[in-house]
Amino acid sequence: MTTVIAFILMFGVLVSIHEWGHLIFAKRAGMLVREFAIGFGPKILSFTKNETLYTIRLIPAGGYVRVAGDDPEIVELKPGHHIGLEFNKDGKVEKIIVNNKSKHPNARTIEVENVDLDHKLIIEGYEQDDEDTKLHFDVDRKAMFVVDERETQIAPFDRQFASKTVGQRAMQLFAGPMMNFILAIFIFLLIGLIQGIPVEQAQMGEIQPGSPAEEAGLQENDVITQIGDQSISTWEQFTDIVRANPEQELGLVISRDDVKQELTVVPAEVEGVNEKGDPIQIGQIGVLPAFDKNILGTLKFGFERTYETSKLIITNLVMLVTGQLSIDVLSGPVGIYDATDQVVQSGFSNFLMWTAMLSINLGIINLVPLPALDGGRLMFVLIEAVRGKPIAPEKEGVFHFVGFALLMLLMIVVTWNDIQRLFL
Q: What NCBIfam families does this protein map onto (predicted)?
C-alpha cells in the first residue's frame, strides 16, 4: 500500500507540474484552455474553474492540456442549420443551442444564413415564420455552444493557439518540460537541505551493520586515500574499484583523525547493471558517502545533479536510437512501478532522488521531436519560424496521428516487456 500511495503521488506530481507549465503559459498568452487532464480515458473526477475543465482520468499514462485551436473546434455552424439563441442582458448571444431546442422554451429559433464566430462574432439568419427579414445578432466573446445539454465555450480566433506569435506558441509547448527540470532542481535542493550534499573525497558516511565495511573495521568519517597501489581522491574512484572487484580482497589505506591506517575489505557480490542496462555482478561493501550541509554547496548540488542526470539520460537515448542499447531497457508504467517499489523500501531520500530523475527523464523525452509529444509540435513551430509560414494543418495532423499510433504500439511492447520481467 505504501508503494501504491507513493507511485500515485509521484505520478500526480510529475504530470501535474508538467501540464501546469503548459497551462500557465497558455493563459499568459491569452489562449483559451479547454481542459487540464491528469491521465487518459474515462473521467474519475472533474470540475470547472476560470473557463477550464479540470479532470482526473482512469489510465495513469500521462496527461494533457487542451487549448482552443489545437483540434478542430467542436461545433461548426453552416448555412441552413436551425439553432436556438439565448441572450444576455446586453442583448448579445450567450448560448447557441445546437440540438434539443425544445428543452429551451425561451430560446429564439433561427435558420442560419451567415456565421462568423472567429473574427466578427456574428450570426445572421431568419426566423421560421419570417423568411423575408434577415436578422443580425452579435455574439458574446464567452458565449456557449449547447450540444446534448453540455456547454462548451466558443473560441474567437485571438483565443486560439494558432493566433499567437511563434514565440508565445513555442514557449507554451516548451513550458511543460521546463517545469520538469525546475522540479528536479527543487527536489535536489530539498535533498541537500535535508541530508546534506555528498563530499567530493572518499569519506565514509553511515556504515551498514553486518556489512563488509563494518567487518573490515571501517568507521564513519574515515577517508580512503589508497586502494592497493592506486591513490584515491574522490568517492567515484573508490566506488568504481569496489564495484569492479566483487569477492576480491582489497587493501585500503585510510586516514582516521589524521592518522594513516591499513585495512583489508572483501566486497560482497551483488546483482547490478552495466552502462547498457545488462545485468552484471558488482562489488558492494555497505557504506554510504559522507554528507556536508552547506547552503552554497546545496545550490550548486541542485543544478549540477540536474545537469549530470540530464547528460546521462541524453547519452542513453542516443545509444538507444543508434542501436547501441536494446529496446528491452525501456520501461513503461509497470516497470516504473516495480522500480518505485524497490526505491520506496530503500528510504525517503532515495524516493526523492528517483522522483527527480523521472522528472528530468519526462522533460527530456517530451522534447524529443516525436509526433504527438511537445518536441514534435515544437518542431513544427520552429519550421514555421524558419520558412515564414506554417505547414498545412492537415499535414501536421496526419503526422501526429500516425506518430501517436506508433507511440501507443511502442507503449504496448514496453509494457509487455515489463510484465515479462516481473515473472522471470
A: RIP metalloprotease RseP (TIGR00054)
For residue 69, count CB atoms less than 10 angstroms from its CB and return exposed for 0-12, middle for 13-18, buried for 19 or more. Answer: buried
- What amino acid is encoded at 181 in this protein? F
Strands 130-147 and 93-97, by their bridges, are: parallel
d(CA 297, CA 324): 36
3-state secondary structure the chain: CHHHHHHHHHHHHHHHHHHHHHHHHHHHCCCCEEEEEEEEEEEEEEEEECCEEEEEEEEEEEEEEEECCCCCCCCCCCCCCEEEEEECCCCCEEEEECCCHHHCCCCEEEEEEEEECCCCCEEEEEECCEEEEEEEEEEEEEEEEEECCEEEECCCHHHCHHHCCHHHHHHHHHHHHHHHHHHHHHHHHHHHHHHCEECCCCEEEEECCCCHHHHHCCCCCCEEEEECCEECCCHHHHHHHHHCCCCCCEEEEEEECCEEEEEEECCEEEEEECCCCCEEEEEECCEEECEECCHHHHHHHHHHHHHHHHHHHHHHHHHHHCCCCCHHHCCCHHHHHHHHHHHHHCCHHHHHHHHHHHHHHHHHHHHCCCCCCHHHHHHHHHHHHHHCCCCCHHHHHHHHHHHHHHHHHHHHHHHHHHHHHHCC
* pTM (two decimals): 0.80
User: Residue 89 is which amino acid?
Assistant: K
**What residues are annotated to the active site?**
19
Q: What is the C-alpha to C-alpha distance for residues 329 and 384, in angstroms, rounded to an integer? A: 35
Per-residue pLDDT of the chain (424 residues; tens, 9 = 90+): 688 888 888 988 999 999 999 999 999 999 999 999 998 889 999 999 999 999 999 887 789 999 998 766 567 888 999 999 999 999 999 999 998 888 888 899 999 999 999 999 999 999 877 878 899 999 999 999 999 888 999 999 999 999 999 999 999 999 999 999 999 999 999 998 888 888 888 999 989 999 999 999 999 999 999 999 999 999 999 999 999 999 999 999 999 988 999 999 999 988 776 665 567 888 999 998 888 888 888 888 899 999 999 999 998 888 877 877 676 667 767 777 777 888 888 788 889 999 999 999 999 999 988 877 899 899 999 999 998 888 887 787 787 778 777 777 877 777 777 677 666 6
